[in-house]
Amino acid sequence: MKFSHLHGYLAVIIQLIFFGLFCIFVRYSPDADARHHPLPENATKVETKMAHHSSGDPWIHARTYPMFQDVHVMIFVGFGFLMTFLKKYGFSAVGLNFMISALCLQWAILIHGFFHLKYGTIFVDLNSLLGADFTAATVLITFGAVLGKTTPTQLILVTMIEIPLFTINEIIGRQYLGAVDMGDSMFVHTFGAYFGLALSLMLYRRDSSTEKEGSSYQSDIFAMIGTLFLWLYWPSFNAGAAVGDDQHRGIVNTYVSLIACCFTAFAISSIIHKDKKFDMVHIQNSTLAGGVAVGTAADLMIQPWGALLIGIIAGTLSVLGYVYLTPFLASRLRIHDTCGVNNLHGMPGILAGIIGCIVAAMASEANYGPSLYEIFPARAPPHGTAQLDQLRVLLPDLEGGSGISATAQAINQILALVITMGVSIVGGIVTGLILRLRPFATLKTDELYEDETYWLVEAEEDEHEAHKTISIPMNDAADNGTSK
Amino acid sequence: MKFSHLHGYLAVIIQLIFFGLFCIFVRYSPDADARHHPLPENATKVETKMAHHSSGDPWIHARTYPMFQDVHVMIFVGFGFLMTFLKKYGFSAVGLNFMISALCLQWAILIHGFFHLKYGTIFVDLNSLLGADFTAATVLITFGAVLGKTTPTQLILVTMIEIPLFTINEIIGRQYLGAVDMGDSMFVHTFGAYFGLALSLMLYRRDSSTEKEGSSYQSDIFAMIGTLFLWLYWPSFNAGAAVGDDQHRGIVNTYVSLIACCFTAFAISSIIHKDKKFDMVHIQNSTLAGGVAVGTAADLMIQPWGALLIGIIAGTLSVLGYVYLTPFLASRLRIHDTCGVNNLHGMPGILAGIIGCIVAAMASEANYGPSLYEIFPARAPPHGTAQLDQLRVLLPDLEGGSGISATAQAINQILALVITMGVSIVGGIVTGLILRLRPFATLKTDELYEDETYWLVEAEEDEHEAHKTISIPMNDAADNGTSK
Amino acid sequence: MKFSHLHGYLAVIIQLIFFGLFCIFVRYSPDADARHHPLPENATKVETKMAHHSSGDPWIHARTYPMFQDVHVMIFVGFGFLMTFLKKYGFSAVGLNFMISALCLQWAILIHGFFHLKYGTIFVDLNSLLGADFTAATVLITFGAVLGKTTPTQLILVTMIEIPLFTINEIIGRQYLGAVDMGDSMFVHTFGAYFGLALSLMLYRRDSSTEKEGSSYQSDIFAMIGTLFLWLYWPSFNAGAAVGDDQHRGIVNTYVSLIACCFTAFAISSIIHKDKKFDMVHIQNSTLAGGVAVGTAADLMIQPWGALLIGIIAGTLSVLGYVYLTPFLASRLRIHDTCGVNNLHGMPGILAGIIGCIVAAMASEANYGPSLYEIFPARAPPHGTAQLDQLRVLLPDLEGGSGISATAQAINQILALVITMGVSIVGGIVTGLILRLRPFATLKTDELYEDETYWLVEAEEDEHEAHKTISIPMNDAADNGTSK
């Protein structure tokens, strides 16, 4: 048995280690803990301390849950079916997406938890699960760049390496730089895309484009299931973690950006084709670029026309990327991008980061009112200043920040983008070097984009049978034909 | 290049015009505007005035959002996949549905906004997006009547013309006549269906029924994805715009009507067939008629048995329509209805209007209590009357109406239905005359119900290979072979 | 016409009887009744009494609705598409699932209502609809065991018989024994599975395994739509009926159990195969076993590590069941289980019941705080005791229970499981005996797993044509043909 088929045993070992870690570290957060509703007299010290972290509202999860489920559907149905466009790789697309996501969610809860330990414990509630789903998206984007060219073992390794790097990068960006990125366009989309492209570069092979890389009529329709659920629930992805009117604005901005992006992508896809025909590849992917491009500024005051403009630019950029850039990357830069994640997540993610920087530079009390300091926490006056106390009259819960200027915030936004690019590319290269190590046997050419390598595909065989048998009754000549 | 292939350029022009209009007119409503939470001292006059239109609740969108997403899924996944039943038109069904919907949503926000300008501005929030989705349904229903027989250019024109007419008709019905129609059965379903049938009449062609009009085993299953999501989320469509217990009742009524309609449709579909076999066409469409038929009265006191009865009638009516009426319309009245929208949206819509009239005629304080005047605003006592003040003790927010009687309300309901029929039919005819103009070249017979006309279909080509070989049996040897 | 094709007429009769029963018994509950918002002076005695059953909150449905819709999707899209894995039975899988569910929902509302009459009336609101959906799941699980081997007439009879038995069994378990089962793992999954297996035993036939029982490449991907929506929305199934932090915990536990189960199922599926290949049957089904296994304890204090462990065990157990037990049952015990419901619902359901018993035995104020008595109502102190009054200081709404011990509760949990097994098996056997009666003609061998028996399937014929011709190029004549 080939080493490349040891993924089953590897998975069992990982799962058991996770169980151990869960036993030691993971507990319910107060909001999900029966003992906190109400807190009994015999409550432990930690429980009493944790009570301060509790919302005190037993229904606190109810408001987030519908948006959480939308994001959940995006991860498993959205990404899963989007990748079924390959005609002979449907099982792997939706199946490995399922398997890897289940691994991501567990690993993300643990890694995120280790970086945010409270009293040596990882406290889990619905927000933890939502965060885990966002993290999974990063790995699935990376998966898209190497789709059909990696073994399950390799995908498991990618997941184990990428998630810690993702978490560290996000902490640098959000906590240390105070960068805002409501829709995770930088921390999830840009990171996942360039990690994947760097990985693909390292795994480059001359034979990476085979006949099997194409789609079939059926597989293209299956892929539309993924596209539509991603497109429809994207507002939940961009606004799910926002609060109050920020969330409302995040929904409106994402919706507006997406409808403009969708219509523009159709238009450009047709214009650019010699016979003015639509290309399913663009419809399946470029229609979504608007969701990525508006992500960083999703909750900011960009006004509907701003969101519309972002959608138009993203849709155009993405289609042009598929037509001109993807072939160039593959032929010249030896970067083969199966799903074209650079056009759907990469470039739109960079665009989102730049837009975030521009909008942050223009943000002031004039256009945000006092809530400016809730949206850009780093701009809030430092703790103990008179200015902060004054603001607290209007916003009681406002916490002290570092009182930085709009320009400083804008610079931090760009820094976060640059660092994200750096960490993801270096991470992807290092991961690629590991995956190239001897044991992780690579696939043969005819095993690329092919389910039969790792899946029981009776149907295929049946069909072969069918054809053979059906052909026989026709006439003797046919038998001769086959016997030749 | 044929004029009929200029849709790409047309789309770009429209998108840019929309961008201009968004820049000038569209802004966040107070509920979605950061400056309103809280409103700063330096607020402008308009902002201060708009504050009165603000709910003051930063989470106002949270209650509507889940139902909005259900409706959103109905528009793109529901309608999109329902139309994939054609074996060679799947890309166009789900793809053009996607493109046209994205156009509808933008155009609907603008047109609805122009008819409801505040201080010369279109204020957008989640309700605007929900309203836009309802409007899109109208155009997609029309799309269903001419599915496979129109070019993208023609569909764009239909959208641009139909939405303003739809909006005017709804304003006449709701504002001037005070007609109620919670599920939009008259304003969306009836309007969309008869607009489409009139359009189909004008575009009639002898060759409109080709071999390609059929379905395949796979395409029929794809279509069930559309059917099920429409069927499941229909309660959100009928009750999404309702408030409090009206919404609760709207959910119950729609659910009950749909389960009875579904079961009845299966029964009639089997009974009517000579071998008692189920017909997928009925299962995909007639099971939904109950949602349309209960729409106008969805929030009214029809009791569960009333909803059940409506479902039974609608399911029967719809199946009979497919079996007897659709062929008759095509052969005798030269109205070819690809999806049979007359059976799913047309007749059930008229039925809904009539039911709405009957129920309105029977509505009284006896069976509605004081909330009668919230549900039928036109029946509320006029402003300044003692009767109104008295009611306000119980219902503080009740606004003055025109104090009309149950009979008057019932008459207005029927008037709204008749006017809807009139506007939609005339609108469809005029639109049809425009689409018949020279430039908008019509499709050749073999281009009907065929993706390859406007889509890059690599897979198809593969099949062509197959087809080539398939053509072989034409030669004698094959015939001999088979004749053995 | 065969008696087995009379299902259409049977359905009409049932539908009309249901209409009659709805007219007599079913009315809106106060929460959905316009007259209760606000209650008018001329309210009837019953209405005034019912007002006490009213929440008084006109938006009471809003919190449950999103979870209700998730469950609704599980029933129709989840179960419906999960069963489309059979290559020639797709129409029946998704179609009959649709028909039978619509029947279940009506029958469930009536039967549950008859056992909970208030003032001789069945009061319906959103909770009734949610309960009906849970009940439908039971019948659909049973359907899975006999998939492809029953006629529509037989399925209708099964539904009519199973739902009353299901309701009685649940009342015994919940009301008389005070057993808790938040995710209905015992009352829905275990009951439905063993009812189905008993039924399958009675309907056993030697020819029950035919070539048509297999899947095709396309049908396996369609089935994944069902799997994913079941897997994603399962937290709504297990927690939809819970309140406050119990619901929050139910979401977390189910999510954690499912991600562990999914990853484990993939691992075991690969390990167990000689070539280490994944088997779609396991991916489609065993990944869901964690949702069943954690169901009974979903809202209990099992901690995330407990949920994770349950998922690991369930995933392993389920895959092993498919590989070793299902063939054994079919060959040795003459129990042919088409979908392997024993591995997805049966054994995991029993596991859930045992876990529920163990967790109940360990439940105390120490780990639940006072809310122990809300979660295990039977353990609450009896009415009128000082202990109860004392608890009411913290929990005003707490109702008096029977003050049983943890051990007693644990025993009742096991009793409920045993009784469920007994009722379902006996019920399945009796139903099987009825289905074997002469009139309900059984299917011929070639009618098994075959849509054409009860569906209009034009497409199939087309394909046959294709196959015939495809064989031709095998012989020389064909080559000549092409060279001509």
From TrEMBL, chains A, B, C:
First-listed, main subcellular location of the protein, grouped into a coarse class: membrane
UniProt keyword list: Membrane, Transmembrane, Transmembrane helix
TM region positions: 7-28, 67-86, 98-117, 129-148, 155-173, 185-204, 216-234, 254-273, 285-302, 308-330, 342-363, 414-435
Origin: domain of life: Eukaryota
InterPro entries listed in its UniProt record: Ammonium/urea_transptr (IPR029020), NH4_transpt_AmtB-like_dom (IPR024041), RhesusRHD (IPR002229)
GO molecular function: ammonium channel activity
Compartment annotation: Membrane
Residues covered by the Ammonium transporter AmtB-like domain: 64-438
CC terms in the record's Gene Ontology section: plasma membrane
GO BP term, pick one: ammonium homeostasis
Transmembrane helix as UniProt keyword: yes
Membrane topology category: Multi-pass membrane protein
Keyword Ribonucleoprotein appears in the UniProt entry: no
Family the entry assigns: Belongs to the ammonium transporter (TC 2.A.49) family. Rh subfamily.
Name by which UniProt lists this protein: Ammonium transporter AmtB-like domain-containing protein
